[in-house]
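Honest question from a wet-lab person: if I give you the sequences of every part of a complex, can you actually get the arrangement of the whole thing, not just the pieces? Trying it with mine:
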Amino acid sequence: SQTIHQWPATLVQPVGSPLSLECTVEGTSNPNLYWYRQAAGRGLQLLFYSVGIGQISSEVPQNLSASRPQDRQFILSSKKLLLSDSGFYLCAWSVWAGGASDTQYFGPGTRLTVL
Amino acid sequence: AQTVTQSQPEMSVQEAETVTLSCTYDTSESDYYLFWYKQPPSRQMILVIRQEAYKQQNATENRFSVNFQKAAKSFSLKISDSQLGDAAMYFCASYGGATNKLIFGTGTLLAVQP
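Yes, you can. This is the full assembly:
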């Protein structure tokens, strides 16, 4: 069966510090991978998605970036965090099946607080 | 463009009773899918139910069922025999095959009263 991991689970960082959040998927090959952010009491905002190694699409211009160094690894980074980067970050995966890759499965999330 | 609207910010139900959460959507795509996700206090998003838009039959997963009205672009979730563990934020979402994007509504917070 497939599993998705995210770490760290919780992170407190000062403004201006760098960021690296990691997401890995097990039990599947060539998944689509996604990064979402959820502000407190709000819905999910798609930040990046990737359909393959080295292929990243950005949905929202900001000081965050994403990379996919391996098939089942997706990394969210920042060189300098802003207060507005605080939130709950969720990674998700999907695979092509039956002509669609519609169903996304989510990891446990990382709670980021920027002080 | 796709939009998903959940007009009920909060709902409450008595344990063992039935509750219906509302969702409307708009999409220009002919090939799309609809979902309900549950987000408990742990905040992990859990897939509750999936509906293929080309299927007229409403999806069902145990105590969870949907009422999919394609012409009205309505996709409501019915929870039968509500349990305390059903208390969570529920998100409606729409996926478009052409855009490969999952668009979420703003959520409905469901409280279950013992």
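Two things worth pointing out. The CA atoms of residues 4 and 56 of chain B lie 20 Å apart. Chain B has a mean pLDDT of 94.
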